[in-house]
Amino acid sequence: GMEEAGQRLAQVVDDPNCDKSNVYWSWNGGAQTVGRWSEDGKPKGAGGSGGEIFENQQSDAVTNQDKAEKVWEFSKKAVGLSEKEMFKGGKLEKEFRP
Fold first, then answer.
1. CA gyration radius for the chain?
2. Among 25, 22, 44, which Cα is nearest to 33's?
3. pLDDT score of 37
4. Which value, to the nearest 10 degrees, does the dihedral of the CA atoms of residues 43, 30, 28, 71 take?
């Protein structure tokens, strides 16, 4: 779970094969754990983890500007993030919106 996520982040930062910007990196196969339900009724485990890194294509849903803005707004609301708490008071967010 978290350890593997840290390893992936470190790989994307440090691996010379990942020196290309604006890329959606993925890993194929080699699941390290099997998904299952824990005793508290929550899902546990991660199918499809591990494997070799490769450059992947993002789906249309991910690259849709309207959906991205809605997800960002819902995310800010869900965690209670105010404009004051955002980097540079949300100035950058406003500059990059079309």
1. 17
2. 44
3. 60
4. 10
- Tell me if the pTM is above 0.85: no
What are the residues facing 1 on neighbouring strands? none
Say which residue the tokens 């779970």 belong to.
1
Place of tokens 């450059």: 55
The pLDDT value recorded for residue 47 is 47
Task: Please check whether residue 51 is in contact with residue 30, taking contact to mean a CB–CB distance below 8 angstroms.
Answer: yes
How many residues are listed for the chain in this entry?
98
Residue 20 DSSP one-character state:
-
Q: What's the helix, strand, coil split of the chain in %, to 5?
A: 50, 15, 35
Query: Per-residue pLDDT tens for 20-62?
Result: 888 888 887 654 555 556 677 655 555 455 678 888 888 887 7
Task: Please name every residue paired with 56 in a beta bridge, in sequence order, or none if there are none.
Answer: 24
